[in-house]
Write the structure tokens for this entry.
Amino acid sequence: MKKTYLNALIALCALALFTTPSIANDPTDKIRAIAEEITEMRSNLAKTFVKDNSTITEETFQNVCGAVGKRVNELTEKEALIIRHVSAKNRNPKNTPTAEEAAFIFTFEGDKSLKRYRDAIEKNGVTYNRFIAPIYIEQACLACHGEKKARPEFIATKYPNDKAYGFKTGDLRGIIIVLAPKAK
Ligand code: HEC
């Protein structure tokens, strides 16, 4: 009896193994996984480090959007990727959208059911697979992206041209764009 169970379990595991789609083999799925990893990472960190009664400091930022920035640098150094976070209401001016990126933000803003967009583009003579996804505001983001007056002190000081406040839960915060060179 026990052995039958064991065999059934082994068969199930083998089935799961063979039917799991291989992310690494499809370059478009790989950049999708990267984009999702980054957005989920930010969401999880915000939930972990922003608690109702906690004081929000620059250290909190280092653990949330700061940690995301580090992960992006790590990924772009390791692989030939280009990763951008852009928002019309940006905090860091380097995240100002180009005209084309602004058009994508407009599209995602207009259709909240749109989960992703992918295509291939040419940039400086290189063909890239491109993946774009929306980033939404959650409760935990409001500590730093909510009301202007409620922003932690360091934000007002460090980002004199800050536009990334005044958001509400469910608002489109911006988009993430991941580019990976297409294999020849
Ligand atoms: C503890 C404060 C803090 C929290 C909480 C926080 N952020 Fe941020 N966020 C910042 C700061 C500061 C920056 C600017 C980083 C830089 O200099 O590049 C930023 C930048 C960003 C950017 C890059 C675009 C821009 O405006 O420059 C996005 C996208 C973003 N945050 C989304 C979110 C989302 C979504 C959440 C919640 C899941 C969140 N943030 C939570 C402080 C925070």
